[in-house]
Amino acid sequence: MPGTGSGCNILNITSFCSFVGEHLQSITENSALLEIVTAFDQLGNLDALTGSKLTEQLISRMDAETVAKWIASAETNWSLRRVCGVFSSWNIQAKTVALSKLIVRPNSDDIQYTTGNCIDSLFKIKVRAGDLVSIQLSEENEMALREIGENVVGKDVVKKGMKKMVDEGTKRPLSILWLCLKLWAFSTTDEDDRNLYESNANELFTIAKETVAGNETNMKVLIDLLMSLLSQPKKYHRSAVYFVFVNLLPMIKSNDITHIIDSLMLSDDELAGEGTSSDVEDAEEDSANDDEGEEALSDNENDIESDSDLDGAEEIDQDLVTRLQNALGKAAVKIKDGTTDEAEEGESDISEVDDDEMFAMDEQLSVAFKAIGPKKDSRIATQTVQAFRSKLADLLLFTLSSQETSPEIKLNLMIPLIRLAKVQLKRSSDASRVKKTIELLEIMAHLKKVSVPEKRILKLFPNLVAESIGVSNPSLNSVIASLASFLFSLGLSEGVASENVKKTFLDVFQQFMSQEDGTIGSELATAAILKYPAAFVSELPTLLESAFNGTYRIYRRTEAIMCAAALCHKQVMKSASVEKGTVKKLGKYCAEYLKTTIAAPETVKPRFFAGVLKFLSAFVPHISGDLMPLLSKLILPTIDSLTNNEEIWKGDLKKCNAACQQVCGRAPLHILNAIRKSLE
Questions:
Q1: Which residue ranges are recorded for the region named Disordered (predicted)?
Q2: Sign of the dihedral defined by the CA atoms of residues 577, 581, 582, 588, in that order
Q3: H/E run at residue 133
Q4: Which DSSP symbol is given to 626?
Q5: Are 65 and 29 within 8 A, CB to CB?
Q6: 365 band by pLDDT with thresholds 50, 70 and 90
Q7: Over the Cα atoms of the chain, what is R_g?
Q8: Could you report the per-residue pLDDT of 525-557, keeping only the tens digit for each?
């Protein structure tokens, strides 16, 4: 019959729920809302059965008093889990009442994660990489959190706790974290977790007795406490911990941040030892507290799956099957090739098993099933550690993005982060982690310019060069080059670099040109010149000398001529004056090279040839009129000889076409004709 298929039934149910939802919109009386929700809940989890949020819509419209009655009367955990879905819709009074009533109910995992996620949603997070980090708890939400604490653990306890937070610099963030710890301790189902939360709460009193700012010991203890909380697989710890950490940034020291990087350098096994909990990270959805359009945190964090998901994802373990069959003996269902034998499916000789055999079977089954545990535990531990790494990376992101972090601390992170990336690249298990580290380095390379002492640049750049040695990963090499450009920019004043800074960077370029072992990469050596050509325009003769030095390797000479071409950009040449000596030297170099090209075209390297043409086409148009005859006299005859030699272009120089198209965007003859026109 038509209309009886499952698809049609689903459509009918959806339409019905939509109709009912629209009809119930007119109901505003709280007692009626409570009565309807209670009636629906007696039928079961209606929202899950119908795929709608019908009851959530009703609950979201309740006032504080009705919310309290509903939570008190709710009989199932699935009913209370809906608090997460409607929490953001309630006013502050309803939120306060809801959490106060929910936490004091008999403990369960559902209540623990629901309350944890609701507390987490009170914090609002905004992050723009390298520019802004804001983790806010509004005054209204802070008062609500305190009231919830008073309702749950007692007014006197909260009052005494607040009085013990005497350090003015950290009083507010530590007080808020203390309240969260007390509420987490009250709602957890695990006694060890409860003791840990209480211990951490008491530790905060010790820390807050003295000024945290400038107290190396206190700050280290506090950072360790925050990291310990992040190491536990509870997502709802994050916002409260992040809130405290961001508030510490104005007073934090470089050693405190490098301590985080040192932890990230640990292996998975070593880092797992940092944690104190073996619980699986809750599968509840993160509270949607990040403003739309802002950068999401830990977007590559590996959420831990539920046990059932992990089991279902595993392939059949043949060794386990064999163990089970041996354990069951005559009671085993016969399996062939990993699948149940259809002819005998569901049949076993269980009726023939006596009591002694049954007891022996139980023992063997216990051994067989215990074999499953280590594999699953290992996978869960790995995922938990990876989640911890992402959270620590978030702390580094906040450090680089906050306007409250001193420029000196940000600069001090450069070398440790590069070392971290190198360590991660050596570990195949860290392939995804190194991407996050490189992203942090890229953020650093694009930070806004700050005032830094010249001696700091002169000290840091050689360290950067030393760390770059041996790096073969293209992404890491690229970001190291960007960092070199960033460091050079810090030494610029109105576009002019100090002689000491410029000399330091040029020395590295010369080391690159003359080295025999290739320890300094081309990207690093040329980065500052290509990014800030105006600062190096006076070094054009030096670059030309390197480019046409036959003792250097050709690919390095190619990099040198490309740098020389970059210096001849029209915007750079507008403010530069070209001296007669430079023109004469250029003319001789180019004339000799072009003559060699005609005499021995088979020795020509296409990319270097293209670089020379690119340089000439950029340089010649900017020569002053009184110097043009000198340059024309030196190179025009050779250019004429080269362009008129048709055979050479059909033969050995044909290989240069592709390189010229790639480097200059035109064929070589077209470029030479344009140069000739400029000379004439």
A1: 272-309
A2: positive
A3: strand 132-136
A4: T
A5: no
A6: low
A7: 35
A8: 999 999 999 999 989 999 999 999 999 999 999
